[in-house]
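Trying the structure run again after the queue cleared.
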Amino acid sequence: MLQQLLQPITFAQFATALFVAILFLQSGLDKVFNFADNLGWLTGHFSKTPFRNQVKAMLVTITVAEMLAGLLAMAGAVQIAWSGQLTCAMYGAQLATIDIVLLFFGQRIAKDYAGAASLVPYFILCVGDVLLLTL
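Done. Tokens:
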């Protein structure tokens, strides 16, 4: 088992799944534990957009999606380490990619171009993770 995990492709799959898990679980948990602060900030952020009346629903949706992506990626990292299976990691990476696209869309709609640009490395990571998990 350890011998397989130390193979370059398997190790990269494990490491990216773990990275995505940490990234999305931390972000999702921050939204859970600081919901009111996040809601207040996002309400102002989207105040001049067509989404100004849907901020709470959007925050709940992205929080659930981030938590699910993080949990799937964490389960995937464990699955890779334990059995070499990639199923959960792939679902986590795909959902994480969709999450980043949704966040990017929101930032662009809010005309926060710097915020949108800061998501590009995460998008590249998530798409790279999806591709890596196909090897």
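Residues 55-83 form the longest helix (29 residues). Worth checking whether this holds up in the mutant runs.
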